[in-house]
Automatic annotation (TrEMBL):
One of its GO terms (cellular component) is cytosol. This is Transcriptional regulator. One of its GO terms (molecular function) is DNA-binding transcription factor activity. Keywords: DNA-binding.
């Protein structure tokens, strides 16, 4: 069992659980975290637009199953497709930040 004494921040907890930035476990954690965030943003934006997955897929030239995979964090998505889904399908702008 891991010792959680002397942990004072979320970053310290993540490092204890998944290792330092650049380690394989940490990279997997970060990738999964980003996919979860994207999936939740897509679900929220689609619901705000009062669209079903099928309607969004039709507007963006994709399939309902593809939208579903993304919303469930299971799809591997290309940036161009992500932009099309948000900008064409949901009338939302995407901004990227690299840290």
């Amino acid at each position: 069992m891991k010792n959680y004494d002397n942990i004072n921040s979320f970053d310290e907890l993540i490092e204890r659980e998944h290792g330092a930035i650049g380690m394989e476990s940490r990279n997997r954690y970060e990738e999964n975290s980003q996919m979860f965030i994207i999936s939740e943003m897509l679900k929220e934006a689609r619901r705000e637009a009062n669209l079903t997955q099928e309607q969004l897929a039709e507007k963006t030239g994709t399939k309902k199953s593809y939208i579903s995979k993304i919303e469930n964090g299971k799809g591997n998505i290309q940036l161009s497709t992500l932009i099309r889904i948000f900008e064409v399908g949901l009338n939302k702008r995407i901004g990227l930040t690299f840290l």
